[in-house]
Specification:
Layout: H1 9-16, H2 20-28, H3 35-48, H4 54-61, E1 66-71, H5 77-92, E2 96-101, H6 106-118, E3 123-127, H7 134-149, E4 153-157, E5 166-170, H8 172-185, E6 191-195, H9 201-216, E7 223-226, H10 231-243, E8 257-260, H11 263-275, E9 285-287, E10 304-306, H12 309-321, E11 331-334, E12 337-339
Parallel strand pairs: 1-2, 1-3, 3-4, 4-5, 5-11, 6-7, 6-8, 8-9
Antiparallel strand pairs: 10-12
Length: 349
């Protein structure tokens, strides 16, 4: 028999051939599940000697003082900045924050929402892009609708097309378009873009806004390279562009400016450019998005679109806990501000 100390909810779900969200609903008794699925999950749990986490159960008993925060990756300064604002506001209200990272796994995000429902969290906050995925939308709606109907509170940061809940909405499309116009004003006409996964709404908005602004100025659409929203993703993407001569080419016909859709990716891109002997901005200009604290200390400091991350965290928890929040949906838009720094100048002569 498997050592139950090491058995997780995901192990049970895998053994039963169901999603973690379904396994959680069965084991927590938070929603109706088809009898055949329930039987499979209960049989797998018995076979694996699975027992719920006692610590989680203890938290459930104090759930009215708990706020669940689900983000893509708390190690990313974008999410840690927002989380800091949430935690500061929660502390002022004597609330406990439970923080989880999904690592951009849509099924894991749904499963975490199910777990927070089971623990009767006072509010659930989703921090980060929605997924451009109808199946995820249906699964998330199935979890959130009964939670909301039972009096739970939900608020989100970023665009979630299908979730009709209170929203703090950074103006990603508008901010990227404004950045493109600022770079055009510097004289650039050749661009390349380092993009995150195309299934995220933030990526759709930032890449779309940037390319729309270029098209409006009659500039050929930038080449887009997709990769993880990480330092390593930015490094790999920039390396690929260098290998193909899209940037840093000797003919002078390549891109003169590289836009990374997050500052974290821009940090990796800067390292890749330096490894190939290119200077920023003398040979290639570089820009990012978010204005995480570290980019001001880079050499050179990074041009970016600044978002008030901690303020966004404070605003999303305030929305979730406001009086009458169930009466009418509220959307609070957050504008980004283009900050031109030394990483961008005009194109090389």
């Amino acid at each position: 028999m498997t050592d139950r100390v090491h058995v997780t909810l995901r192990d049970v779900a895998t053994a039963a051939g169901v999603s973690p969200a379904t396994a959680s609903r069965v084991l927590n008794g938070t929603a109706r599940v088809r009898p055949d699925l329930r039987d499979r999950v209960e049989a797998a749990a018995a076979q694996l000697a699975y027992t719920p986490n006692a610590h989680a159960q203890a938290l459930a008993r104090a759930s009215n003082e708990t706020v669940g925060v689900i983000c893509h990756d708390v190690s990313d300064p974008y999410f840690s900045g927002i989380a800091r604002g949430i935690m500061r506001a929660a502390a002022q209200r004597d609330l406990l924050v439970m923080l989880a990272s999904t690592f951009r796994d849509s099924e894991r995000e749904v499963a975490y929402v199910s777990m927070l429902r089971a623990q009767r969290a006072r509010a659930i906050l989703l921090i980060g892009s929605g997924f451009e995925d109808r199946r995820w939308e249906r699964a998330m709606d199935a979890e959130l609708r009964p939670y909301l109907n039972a009096g739970g509170r939900v608020a989100v940061v970023s665009r979630h097309r299908s979730l009709r809940v209170d929203t703090v909405l950074p103006e990603n499309r508008e901010g990227a378009a404004a950045l493109a116009r600022a770079l055009l004003a510097l004289g650039h006409r050749g661009f390349a873009v380092l993009s995150g996964p195309r299934g995220l709404s933030t990526v759709v908005d930032r890449v779309g806004g940037f390319r729309d602004a270029l098209a409006a100025a009659g500039v050929t659409a930038a080449e887009v390279v997709e990769g993880p929203f990480t330092r390593e993703g930015g490094h790999a993407g920039a390396t690929g562009l260098l290998d193909r001569g899209v940037i840093g080419g000797s003919s002078g016909s390549g891109a003169t400016c590289l836009f990374a859709t997050t500052d974290v990716m821009a940090v990796g891109a800067l390292a890749a450019l330096r490894e190939r002997g290119l200077r920023v901005p003398e040979d290639v200009s570089l820009a990012g998005f978010d204005d995480i604290p570290v980019v001001r200390d880079l050499t050179p400091p990074l041009t970016t679109v600044a978002l008030p991350l901690e303020e966004m965290g404070e605003r999303v928890i305030a929305l979730a806990l406001r009086d009458g929040s169930r009466a009418r949906r509220r959307i609070e838009r957050v504008a980004g501000t283009v900050v031109l720094r030394a990483s961008t100048t005009g194109p090389p002569a």
